[in-house]
Amino acid sequence: ADLSTAGGTDALASFATGNGPVDILVNNAGMFTVNEFFDITDADWQAMLQVNLSGCLLSAQAFGAQMVAKGRGALVHVASISASQPQPFSGAYSAGKAAVAMLSRQLAFEWGPSGIRSNTVSPGLVLTPLSQDFYADPSVRRAREAIVPLRRIGTAEDMADAALFLASDRAGYVNGQEIVVDGGLAQTIMGRVPRPGYDG
């Protein structure tokens, strides 16, 4: 389905609910393009925001009505550590992912009284079909692993485990929150600041 359009998300919801109500929505669709801000076109900017951000809202709207009618449901939106750590030369990616995190919190506030929970998973460095070209060079992979405290690149399963928790009844009182799944990468910025006499 084309999740950048209301028609696409409505069609998907209609198809998915053919066998009964859907209790869980994971907004995981996304795209990425390389752009400098001086060079990015309006079309490229809008295309990325339409998929990465508007797709989350349109999907939430398409599936949310039945969740409200049932009085329960869980939304899990996939953002990125790039939502809080600016990722250069990536056009609308960081801005869009930051907006996804805020959208999730707004949905948590507005739809919470109807029994709908909305939370976010923010991945760090993860090996996926979208990122696999970055890891084709073994030296690049080693360099990336070296900056992650857990010294490995994340997997799709790592992200799925976090999403599964947020979608499950074990997170029944978790609403409007973000789980950063990055092996500790986002906590390393101060470790990059030279401190003579204190550096390990």
Task: Characterize the structure shown.
With 200 residues, the protein is an alpha/beta fold. The protein is 40% helix and 11% strand. It has 5 helices and 4 strands. It has helices at 6-16, 42-70, 93-111, 138-146, 156-167, and strands spanning 24-27, 73-78, 116-123, 178-181. It has a 4-stranded parallel beta sheet with strand order 1-2-3-4, with helices on both faces. The longest helix is centred in the first third of the chain and has 29 residues, at 42-70. The mean pLDDT is 93.
* Strand order, sheet with most strands: 1-2-3-4
Largest sheet: 4 strands, parallel
Mean of pLDDT: 93
Amino-to-carboxy terminus distance: 51 Å
Assign an overall shape. Answer: globular
How would you describe the oligomerization state of the chains in this entry? single chain
Number of strands: 4
Roughly what fraction of the amino acids lie in strands?
5-15%
Low-confidence stretches: none
